[in-house]
Amino acid sequence: MTASTVNIIAAYAKIDQDNSEQLQQKIAHYQSSVDAITALGITPTQLTIEPLSTDWHSELQPNHFRSGCAPIMALEHAQQLISQGHQAVIIRGDDAVKSGYQREERHQLMSVYADDYSIAQLYNDLADEFIKYHNISDTKFLELAEALFTNHSRSHYIAKQQQRAHFPTPDTKWFNHVTKLFRGVDCANPLVDFSGRLLLCSEALTQQLNIDKNHTVSVSGVGLGLLDIDEKQQLPLIARYEHLSHAYQQACLQADVDLNSLIAKDKVLMEIYTCYPVVPLAFLVSSGLIKSLNDASAFISQHLMTITGGMNLARAPWNNPALNGLIEMYHLLNSKTASSSGKNQYGLVHGNGGLGYRQGVAILESK
What we know:
Elements: E1 6-15, H1 21-39, E2 45-49, E3 64-65, H2 70-83, E4 88-96, H3 103-110, H4 119-134, H5 138-161, E5 177-179, E6 182-183, E7 193-202, H6 203-208, E8 217-226, H7 235-238, H8 242-255, H9 259-264, E9 268-271, H10 278-286, H11 296-302, H12 310-313, H13 321-334, H14 336-339, E10 346-353, E11 358-366
Parallel strand pairs: 2-3, 2-4, 9-10
Antiparallel strand pairs: 1-7, 1-8, 4-7, 5-6, 8-11, 10-11
Helix pairs in contact: 5-11
C-alpha cells in the first residue's frame, strides 16, 4: 500500500426515526473513531453534501457538493486531500426531506428546472432520446423497466431479511403510469429523513490507530464524467452517456481491476443509481457489461443491481442516495455475509447528477 491509500474506517446512516441497537453501535463506533483521531491532534476535514433547502442555482461554497453525483465527487476530493497530506476526511449529509419541509415548499425546492418542465417530463424526454439512440421500441423500454423493478424488489427483500431495509413495498397506486414511459415505482421516491457520515483516513493514520485491516474498506478507484450544462437542450448528448463510460473506465483504471469479469462471476456488490430506468440501463451499456440493450434482460435477471432495493424501494434523500450507497457498501463489505467466502471483495457505487450531466463511479475494496 502507498501513503495515499484512502480507507473508510467508520460510517453510519440514519433513516427516518431509526433508533435500533444496530444503528446505535454504528454511531458509537463512528464517534469513538473520530474521538481517537482528534485525540491525536488531527481535525478531520469536513465535506458537506448540500440539502434540499440550499438553492439549486446558488454558488457552491468550498468543500460543499450538490446533485446526485455529489457524494462521488466528494469522495474524489477526499482522495485528493489525503494525497496532499490531510490525514482524515468526513463526508457528511443531513436532509430531513420528509419532515423538514411543508409539501408545497418541498415541491418548489425540487423544481430546479424551467417552470414548464417537471423532472418527470424531463426524464421521459431523456428516455425518448435514449430509445432513439439505441434503436429500441417504447415497448422494449417498458419491459426493461419492469425487469428492473423486479430486480430491485429482490435486493430489497434481501435487505429486509438482513434488517437493512426500512420501507414496505409501495402501494398499488405507485404502479400507475406517471408519464408515457414510467410508473411511480420506476422513479425515485425522495420522502425520507436522512443523516449520514463517512469517515476516511490515510493509510498512515489507519496504522497509527491500530485498526485491523479486516475492519477497513479501501477506496480503490473513483471516476468522474462531467458535462457543462444540465438542461433540456442537452438531453441528446446526455442520452449517449459517453461521459459515464469515461467515469467507469477511469475508476477501473485507478483500481487496476477488470471489474466486468468479476461482475460476471457475481464477485462485486453493486449500488447502481436507479432514479429512473434509463440511468441503470445506460450504466449497463456504458460500462460494457452488456453489448446492447438486447442483452439487458438476461443481465438483469442474473445479477442484483443494488444492495438496497433502488431509490424507490429504499427511498432517495435528494443529494444523498450515493452517500447512503457508500455507507451501506462499507458495512456490507465488512460483514461476514459478504466477505467470509471472499465472494464480494469489491463494491461499486454509482452517482448520477441532475438529468444525467454528472456521472461518478466509486470502487471499494475489502482487504
